[in-house]
Structures are given as structure tokens and as C-alpha cells.
Structures
1.
Amino acid sequence: MTTMPYVLWLDDPTSVGNPLLGGKFASLAEMVGAGLSVPHGFGITTAAYRYFMAASGLVDEARRVREIAPKLALHEIKEEATALVNGIKTAPLPADLEDEIRKNYALLETRTQRQGVPVAVRSSGESEDLAGASFAGQYETFLWICGIDEVLRNMRACWAGMFGDAVLSYRQDGETVISKGDFGICVGVQQMLEARAAGVMFTLDPINGDRSKIVLEACWGLGEGVVKGDITPSQFAVDKVTFEITRKKPVTQLEEYRFDPSLGGVGLTPIEQDRQDKLCLDDDHVVRLATLAKQIEVARGAPQDIEWGVSHQGDICVLQVRPETVWSRKAAARVVSAQASPVNQVLARLSGIRVSQPVAKSANS
């Protein structure tokens, strides 16, 4: 049995840059280590994932699926992976692993002083660390998950997402990423920020690569609409040296993503009329966010793609950090699919490119 930890907290000094947390969560641990505001959370490590796969007898089937997937069409990949995905979702968890996760969720409840604290359950893959890879939108994320039983269920869904058709068919430089190694996955469990406003920002202009600018997209409520591309956000550009706001592009926003009690989860809810035409960020928050973005870029030594949120009290939190890869690797296409990555959704909006809609997509695709 492995001696590597099954759970690591973001504020554990050993978490900074730790590969057991995968790309996204290791980056968040760096932000915590740098003293930035990040919601409380812990990672169910890649060691936990590998322990489960070995204990459940699924390692050989996972290897078979990885080997055959590059030769198959998308619908064939899904068929080949069905038995594996079902096994990941239903095989018994090792008792010591389940106990460790339950214990740490209870600790999160204590630290947040909130029973059944709502969390985001996010995939954080080792393959995200490959140079130039941009897995945004390929792995699973589940919002406003309450209670340990639901956390465990959605953790399994994140593990199973490693073998979804989007991940198994993802290519970099013409080669499927899964052919580059046996990658594990961490599952991040992080307190939900009840955001007044949220969005993404880039430490360059994603349209022309201008590194003297910081570009922000923002919306009322949770940032899910910006990431998914189904809410048109307000846009801001800031000079990286003077922090002068050089562009504002406000939009009317009729709906926002937030917790909807009638759904028991996150959904689109109407915005009161007096907020619909009002900018979700004032100038002070725009400049503070741009200052934060520059700080992160300097610390990480390269342009960054950052998800952020602003609480109802006006506090800024960092939610995700990853290297910007789109500008350096390919030009924006004329038409961007609605299933493209969140970064390409932003490129489409900034360029005025039409976003094509898929014919149909099942809830489990």
C-alpha cells in the first residue's frame, strides 16, 4: 500500500507545486503559499485515485481503453469506455480511503463553521502539466455539492471523467495526450464562494497577444456562465504598467448563475431590474483584479489565465490559475464550437466571432 497521502490541504506547506494535486490544485496551493485569498479546500490526491483503481481491479481495463482510444471515432470511444466508467462509479471504495475523505470533509465543516458546507468538486489532472496543454473544459467540475455522500459520488464522477470521450480524444500537436503516459487525477474539494460577481482574466490580450494589457471578463453571480459561454459578460482592458482602464464594454445581463433552492443546485436565476444594466465591477475592483493578475504572472513567470470571484463583502478570491496557452499555440478560428474550451469561448466573444451551437448533447456527454 502506498505511503503517499490520500488527502492534502491547500494550506499545507507540502502542497505547493505538489504533483499529487494535479495541475490546477497544485497551482492554487501556490497561490495560498503566496498569501493570496483562496477558498478553503483539500485535494483527494492522485495517490488516492491510483489506490482505488488498483483495489477495484480496474487498472488493466483502464490501460486497454487508453491504448485503443486513439484508433477510434468519438462514439466508439464512449462505447469502449462504458464498462470502465460504470466500474469507477460503482466499485466499493477501500474503507481506509473513504474514512480519510469523510474525516477531512468534517474538518472542512469545522473550519468553515458550516454543517454540510457547499463545495465545488473539481478535477485536477496530471496531464494539465504537459507543456502547452490546455484541458480547460475537458475535465469535470460540479458546483454547490453539499454533504459527504454527495462529495464522494461526485468524486467518482471526476475519476470517471478521465475516461470520457472529450479527454480520451484530446490531442496536442496531432497526438492524443493519453498516449503520452498513465496520468492520474486529483479531485479538489473546495468551499464555494458565494460570489456577487465573478469571471476570468488574462495577463495578455488573448486576441493579439499584447502583453502590455490585462483583459477581464465579468458577470453577476458565479463565473460558470463566463466559463461555459452562455452568458455574455462585461469586458475590461487594463494597462499593465499604469493600471489605467483602457476599455469598458458593458452588457445587459438578465440572468445569473447562483444557488437555486428549487433546483437544489446551481442554475440560471433572474436578475433584479436595477442590476441588469449596471456594471458588476466598479473601477476599484477592476484595478485590484488587474494588480492581482500581474502579481500572479510575475510569480509564475508566464502569461496566466485566472478565474476569480468577488464576495458580497467585496473580497477578491482566486478560484483557478493556469498558464495561458491559446495565443502561443494557435490562431483563433473563424467559428468556435460551443463545446470549445472556456478560453476559446472568450476569444470568440472578444473577436466578435459567431459561436456555433451543437445539434445535440446529452447530459452525460
2.
Amino acid sequence: MQTAGTASLADLVVDVRFIRCHNEFTDTRTIGPPYPPSKTMDPVSQAIVGSTAAQTVSSRRKIVAFSLLGAAAGMAPDLDILIRSDADPLLFLKYHRQFTHSLVFIPFGALLVAMVLHWPFRRTLRFRESWLACLLGYATHGLLDACTSYGTQLFWPFSDHRVSWNVVSVIDPIFTLPVLFFVLLAGVRKRRAFTVAAVAWTVGYLLLGLAQQERASVAAERSAREQGHEPARLSVKPAFGNIVLWKVIYEHEGYYHVNAVRTLRDVRWCPGTRIEELDVARQLPELHPSTQQARDIERFRWFSKDYLALRAGDDLIMDIRYSTVPNEVEPLWGVRIDRSAPDTRVEWWARRDTDARQRAQMRALLAGEGCAPLPRSQDARAASGANRLK
């Protein structure tokens, strides 16, 4: 049964997520290269975490200047979204969350931001203070992005591995709003105690997300075993707007199994669906490996960590890691191919709206509808029986 508290949580996280998408995206046209929804930690979160970091080294008199510079630097790495090309719809996949987000670029990125923004604060701060505020704000960006599931190239240029710790959603009002409240209080009242509270909430929430992910991962592995499956790969990531509902994908015998896990006081399994994994040679024999579209698919495969599937009745290759409803495979983005023109570029496709059914289904899952407690494993039943015999 849905309680009032659970309903309020569901309404909050769903409404914030969908209001943001509705304001930014209004149709489902295929254009290229668009910037798909929810690819990056929302700029408000990046700004306030950057501001929090800068406040930690500020004096009371300079806290407003440090806060503003930290906030600006906290958002600056996402200027890489400007790197795109009409001739190559997938170029932005390579450069978003790449060099501007890497650890080695932090001091240089901070220097650029400080050089641009120091002038308005020159009477309050020395340049090295502006750079310090920007350094701390800029440093938070890549690390916070790595806490999401999209993937961040923290170790560029030494590695193109996309780090994704999967502990928080790209937009989560329960994470963002308390930090925003404390940061504003710190700036208005010029009291470091509020900065400490903001830091404590940020760190505590991310650690809670890590613990929730562990609970969901254990549940996913257990459920797969109960079904007689031995996953070749398993991915667990938070659904949009919360750390209660988790999307589970695992690979078994040529299929991706997509389900959800709800982790409140007890852990509940929300069954979903399965889809055949992409096999280009068999499903798209028209695309020889040397063709442009085949090469573009491999670029998309790197970006999606090989979680690709071909949508039934369509020539859309989907990144199944992302969907509005976590136990479904309806994608947020993908690439569309043209079998009749294999040497042309693929088209980038992004879903730009949501419907009432998806919103209602998301609320239902958050409230636990359609989810059931995991069955007790044979080991647990045997242990319980042995204890009763003692």
C-alpha cells in the first residue's frame, strides 16, 4: 500500500525530473547533434557543490566572493558541450566529460576561469585567492560527475576509461536542495557552520548512495541466481531523482535482462523485460566493418560500454543503460542507421519528451507497486531450518 510519505517522495523526484525535461525538450525529432537530456549532473548541483568547496577556505568577510567564484568554476567544465560538429553527429560523445573533466586539467581549468572572472572581485580578492576559489570549485566537478552513471574520463590523457561510480542520479533534488539551503545560509549569515553542514550533507548522501547501491547489487545478483542465470556482466545504477529505485541490467546468453530494485526498509524486486544484445554481423549484415556506419556504431559502443540493442521494427540502435522507467528499455538516446547508405554518418536520436504513462509508472515503482520482496534463497532457508533444529 502506498503511504503518504512515499507518495510525496515519488511526486517530488518525478515532477522535478520531468519538469526539467519538459522545459528543455519539447519533441522527439531526430536531429544531430543534439545534447540529450540527463547526460550531465545538473548545473545547479555542480554550482552549489563548487561553492561549498570554495567556502571551506574563505574568511567570513570574503565568503560571498569565494562562493560565487566556486559556483562559476563548478559549472565551467561543462563548456565542453560546445565542442560539436554538424558533419559528425557523434563528436560530442568523445569530448563531453573528457579533458575539461580530467584530474590533470583541474589547475589549468581553474586558472582560465580565474583569469576571466577575477576582475569583478579585484577589490575584495587577490588573484591567487580567486584562483584558489576557482581551483576548489573546478575540482569538484569531475569527481561529482564520476559519482553518476554516465562516465567521466578522470584519467585523460593517460586513459579513455569512463569512470562511473553509480551512486547518485544526474539530477536528485534530495541531494541538491539541502546543500543549496546551507550554502545560501553560509553566504547570507557568513557563518562557517552552515558550510560544514553542506559538506556533511554532500558526503553523507553520497555514502548513503554507495550503501544503497551495494544493497541493490546484492539483490540483483541473488535474483539472477534464483532464475538460474549466471550474468556475464551486471550494472546497477540509480533511477532518476533518487537513491531508492535502481536500474539493473545483466547480460546472460545473448540477452540483456532489465529490471529494477527498490531499496527502502526492505529490498523489493521490480521485474522488467529482456532484449537481445546487438550483433552487427547477424542483425545488420549490410554494414561491413569498413563502412562509415559500422565505424560509428563502434564509437557508440565505446560510449555506451557495449550496452547496445536494436529496437524491434526499427533501425535505431539503443543505449539501454538509460530509460525514463528503470525496468524498461525505451531509450533516452541512440543512433539511427540507414542500411541503404552504409557509408554515410549515423544520425543521433534523443527522446525529448515523456508521457503520462511513464510518469505514472515511475511513481508506482517508487511507491513499491508491482514490486515484491525477494524470495528467500535456498542457503537462507537451510540456515533457518538448521537453527530451528538446534
